[in-house]
C-alpha cells in the first residue's frame, strides 16, 4: 500500500507569514563595480532601472528590515586573495577579477551596510555554492530569504533556485532587482517564479513592518 | 601595487580538450514520470522534441561515452522514503511526490542504465544541492560534465550553473535537452550560455570518440 | 563598545528536552562486515562488548524510538558502485571495499530496519562529509541526533564532532557504542565529550519514552 | 562476478611525493586568545610545548613553504559578527565568543601572515564544516594539506579526519601541534593516525624544500 505524505509536509501556499527573527533580506552585488557606468559595458536600460527603481527599493526594504529586526545581509563579488587564485573556475574562465578590498568591491554608498551587518565576498553566481552563507543564516535562525539586487537573470535567479533547493522559503522582490534589459528582467522573473514567492517592494515593506 | 592573476588562472577559451577519464555524461530526469503523456500535463511540443530529438541524442551520447570510457551518470526525481518526508521543502511546496522504487522513478527503457552506472535519486532542481553527486564525481576523478535531459530551463539550467560555480567544466548538449515549449528551450540555452560550453550532440559524439 | 550575545544564543546547558519529531536515532555501521568475527581481525573485547551491550542497547533505543515517533536512521559502509570507484580517497588509501548490495553491507539481523526507515551508504568516517545525511534530516525536521554504533573512536567520534559543528544537538549513547578495546572506548568518550551530551541507554530510553 | 577496483584506485602507501603547487600548510588557531596565559585556563604543559616546540616548528614550516611555493593558510576562531549571532550552535553551547577584529582573534606575532596569505575565521572545531575552506583550496589547486596548530586532540584531529573524508591527502606535522597535556597530545596522534600521514617538522621541511 502506498504511503501518504505527513500532514506537516503538505502546504496550501508558498505565502507563509513573515517572522522577523527568521527572515533575512539579501542584497546581491549592489557594489561599485556593477554601477560603474563609465568603465563597464554600455547598458542604458540597466543603469536606468537600477537608479530609478531597484536601488531605491532596496533602500526601502533595508530600512523596513532594520526597524523590524529582519537581518540585512550583503554579498559582493570580491576575490579573497589579491591575485585572485581563490576565484572559482567560472570566474577565471570569465575573466572576472575584483581585487580584495578594492573600491570596485565596496557596496554602493546609497546602500551602505550598518554596524554589524554581514558583507559576504564571493566569486560565483550563487553565494550558496561558494561561501558559508547557508551556515551563517542557519546559525542566526533564518528560514526565509528575501532576494534583491543584480542581475535578475544571473545571481538573483541562481540564488533563488539554490535557496529553494536547500530548504529556504525564498521571496523575490521583483522591483528591487534589475538586469541588462527590461525584457531579460521580465523573462527571468517568469523563469524562476516556480521556485519562490514573488512580491513587490511595497507589499514586502508592509509585510515586514507588520511582522512579529 | 596590484597583483596579477597566476598564469594557470588565465584561460583563452572554455573549449578545453575532453579527457575520457575526467569526463562524465549526466542524464537528468529521463524517467517514466516525465514521459507519461497520458497522466501528466498536456505539452505536445515537449513530447515531440523529447521523442524525436532529445532521447535519441542522449542514447547516442551514452553509446559514444561507454565506448570511450566516459562515465555515464543518471539522476531521477525520487523520494528516499516512501512517505516522502525526506523531500526538499521545495518539492513539498510544489507537491512533487515520486515514490521510492516506483515505475515513475525508473529511467525510461530507451536509456536503460548499464551495469555499474550510477543512478542518483533527488528531490530538488539541481542535484548538486541535495545529493552527494559532487563527492562521487570528485572521487571518480571527473572535472568535466556534459549535461543532457529535462527540463532545459529548470533542472538542466540549474545544474549547469551550480556545476560552473563549483569548479567543473560544464558542457550543454543543446539538442539532447527539452522543455515544455521550443521557445522556452531556446530562451534557456541563451540564459545559461555564459556558464558553460554549448555543443550539439554530433560535435560531442565526435569529441568523445576522439578523446584519450 | 563591545556587543553582547543575543539572549537566544545563551545556553545554560546542553541537556535540552527531547522532542519526538525533532530527534533522530543514528545507528552507525551495525553491519555484517563489522561483526564478521571469522574473517576480520581478532578483537575479542570488541565482539564481547558489541554482543553483550552495544547491540542490545541499540535494539532497546530503536524500539523506544519507534514507539515514540523518533526517526531511526542507519548508515553502513558500502560502495555506491560495484568497482568502488566512487569511494573516498581515504577508503581507497585504506583499502576498504564493501561491494554494493553485498551481505557485508547489510545491517545485522538483530537490528533489521523497519519499513520506510532510511539506510544511507557511505565510504567515509563521518557520513556528514560524504552523504546527503544533513539534507535529509533537515528536510525531515530533526535538530537532535542520538549516536550509537561502531567504532566509538572512529565513525562515532567523528560523526558527533561534525554534527556539533553543523548545528545539531548531539547525544552519545555511551553504552550503545563499542570499539576494539575497552580502553580505547573509554578514551574516546572522554575525548569527544565536549562536543555532545553523554547519556546511558537507560536514561535515553526514559527520555525518549517521555518525550512529546 | 565481483568487480575489482580500478588500477588508479589502488595505493601502496599514503606517502605520496609532495608537489609545491598542490600542497598547503594549514596553521590552526595560532592566535592571541589561545596563547593568553594570563587570562585563560592554567595549562602549563600546553604553554611550554607551544612556546618551545610547536610555534618554532610552525615558523620553520611556514618559512620553507614560502620559499618552495607551498600555500600558507591560517584559520582562527573569530565571530563573523560583533554579537556572535553567526556562531555555530556548538560555540554558543560552549560559550566561546571571540569578537570580530579583536586582539584575541589575531594570529600571534611570531607567525604573522605574509602578504596575500589567507586567514579564515571560523566558529567551529573543523573549518571544513563552517567555512568555504574546501572551496578555496580546490580553486587554488591543492590536494594535500599539512596540518599544524592547536589543539592536537580537538581542531587538529577533527580537521585531519574531515580532510581525509573529503578527498585530501592529509599530513600531520606531529611536533608542530600541541594540546593541554603531553599525554593528550600523544593519545590524539595515535587516535587519528589512520586518517593521515604523520611526519616530524624536520622531515617535512626537507620534503617541502625538495618538492617541485
UniProtKB/TrEMBL annotation, chains A, B, C, D:
GO-annotated molecular function: hydrolase activity
Keyword Hydrolase: yes
Keywords: Hydrolase
Occurrences of domain Isochorismatase-like (ranges): 24-196
Pfam families: Isochorismatase
Entry annotated with the keyword Flavoprotein: no
Coiled-coil annotated spans: none
InterPro entries named among the record's database cross-references: Isochorismatase-like_dom, Isochorismatase-like_hydrls, Isochorismatase-like_sf
Record-given protein name: Isochorismatase
Taxonomic lineage: Bacteria, Pseudomonadati, Pseudomonadota, Alphaproteobacteria, Hyphomicrobiales
Amino acid at each position: 500500500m502506498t504511503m501518504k505524505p505527513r500532514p506537516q509536509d503538505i502546504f496550501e501556499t508558498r505565502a507563509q507569514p513573515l517572522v522577523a527573527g527568521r527572515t533575512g533580506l539579501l542584497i546581491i552585488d549592489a557594489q561599485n563595480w556593477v554601477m560603474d557606468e563609465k568603465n563597464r559595458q554600455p547598458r542604458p536600460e540597466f543603469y536606468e532601472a537600477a537608479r530609478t527603481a531597484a536601488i531605491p527599493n532596496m533602500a526601502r526594504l533595508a530600512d523596513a528590515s532594520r526597524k523590524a529586526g529582519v537581518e540585512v545581509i550583503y554579498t559582493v563579488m570580491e576575490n579573497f586573495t589579491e591575485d585572485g587564485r581563490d576565484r572559482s573556475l567560472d570566474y577565471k574562465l570569465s575573466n572576472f577579477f575584483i581585487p580584495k578590498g578594492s573600491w570596485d568591491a565596496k557596496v554602493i554608498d546609497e546602500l551602505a551596510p550598518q554596524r554589524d551587518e554581514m558583507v559576504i565576498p564571493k566569486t560565483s553566481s550563487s553565494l550558496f555554492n561558494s561561501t558559508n552563507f547557508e551556515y551563517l543564516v542557519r546559525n542566526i535562525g533564518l528560514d526565509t530569504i528575501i532576494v534583491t539586487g543584480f542581475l535578475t537573470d544571473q545571481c538573483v535567479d541562481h540564488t533563488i533556485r539554490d535557496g529553494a533547493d536547500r530548504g529556504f522559503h525564498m521571496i523575490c522582490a521583483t522591483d528591487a532587482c534589475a538586469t541588462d534589459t527590461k525584457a531579460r528582467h521580465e523573462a527571468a522573473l517568469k523563469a524562476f517564479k516556480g521556485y519562490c514567492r514573488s512580491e513587490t517592494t511595497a507589499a514586502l515593506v508592509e509585510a515586514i513592518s507588520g511582522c512579529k
